[in-house]
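User: Before I run my own analysis I want an independent prediction to cross-check against. Here's the chain; please return only the structure tokens and, at the end, one sentence I can use as a sanity check.
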Amino acid sequence: MTWTKVAPRGWRLLGREWGFQWGRIVVVDLETLALESYQKTLRELSMRQALEFCQAWFQRQGWGNLVPDFSPAHAGAFVLRLEHSAFAEAIGPVGTRCCTMLEGFFAALFSHLAHKLLCVREVQCVCSGHETCTFLVVTEGRVEQLETALEADGNLSRVIATLAANARGAP
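Assistant: Structure tokens:
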């Protein structure tokens, strides 16, 4: 929290990088576990199987219940909801988004599954008074649009609407 207060922008970059490195390490473990369980790598599993496998692992580790939502695919994004985030619950209500390391972790995990670099940004956080921690996942080329939409309005529906409008206007 000290970093968040003193240098919030720097902390978000550092926290995301730590989370990304943590996620890359976990992906290796998940690949090993998938091979042991299915005799297939995560990438060889159907997306549904891979997600269920990762969700179960995440929950067993005590990090929370991960719920993906692909309904905003028309906006070039998908939503991750994290119910009972261990990070957010440990920090408590502070009035700001706090799950920066999870942004990086999820970016590493979903980039691996998608075979391309994805970026994750937290839109809503338990620490800022929301019921769940909610993240948006976009491709690397859309992250600037996402960050601009988040700065203008932190409402999830409006951020998705902005991304959808930008997706329609893109060549």
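Sanity check: Strands lie at 65-69, 77-83, 118-124, 133-139.
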